[in-house]
Amino acid sequence: MTTANGTPGWAIGHVGLCVHDTDAAWTFYEGVVGLAPTHASSRRPGAATVATDNGAQSASFYSAVPGFARDRQCLHNPRVMKFVSIEVDDLDGVASRLAKLGVPCSEIVIPERDDAVQLFCFDPSMNLIGFGRHAAAGVASAGDPAWLIHHVNLQAHDVRDTIGFFTGVADMREGTWMAPPEMGDFSIDPKQLAVQTLGSDNRGLHIIRPDAGFGYRNGFAHNPSIGGHPAFAVPDIQAVMRRLRDADVVFSDAGTYAMTGYHQVYLYDPSYNLIEINQKVA
After folding, report:
1. Could you give the CA distance from residue 17 to residue 230 in angstroms, rounded to a whole number?
2. Would the CATH topology of 10-133 be identical to that of 148-280?
3. How high is the mean pLDDT of the chain?
């Protein structure tokens, strides 16, 4: 899905993570990671959901609500697991293609996206995806000074099948993985790792086959190939690492090992959601 001026007709609008303590999540993401909200926060201590935004994208952290789907008589529950919201120009087209494929969907309101209705479904690898219309605020780009959601990594046992799903349903375009000359020990075979691209710097969706030895071979305390994770780009990754050390948070400083021109760091949040922090350095 490409617009008349050649830009992608989709964007990553939102990521949601289920947490055990929303106050701890807010302290961590706002104070340690540095994902300060662009708009004034209306957070209340002990709230079931806390959220932050960069003016175009947003992230929410919520307590589990096991009865969410039952109470709304829908098939999917975005309040017990992580999810990513893909915002598109042609939501009606996406809905039509999902229906033709026989993919079960649920229409769910997402308060963190101005109460927008999104179409939730599972991709072929059982990652929870919400498709919505482009938010009025626009799309953040890698050149913006604020933090942004650079990419979302999705685990897939069949990378090609999952790539085909997003290409067919949302008319995304598969890109070429841009790796640095001194690449880490992992495969960029398109059957193992692929990117639905939003630009020339690996922004977009990363679809990866899980690799049990990934962390071990690269000397990491974390394995970014398993379970999926959101990746947040920040303006000063060194400052983030200093705050992580001060907070006694174990992290894997991967350096520039996987994406050309990007310094990457992996860590767990207080609820053991794996996340990535990165910075464009060249």
Report:
1. 9
2. yes
3. 93
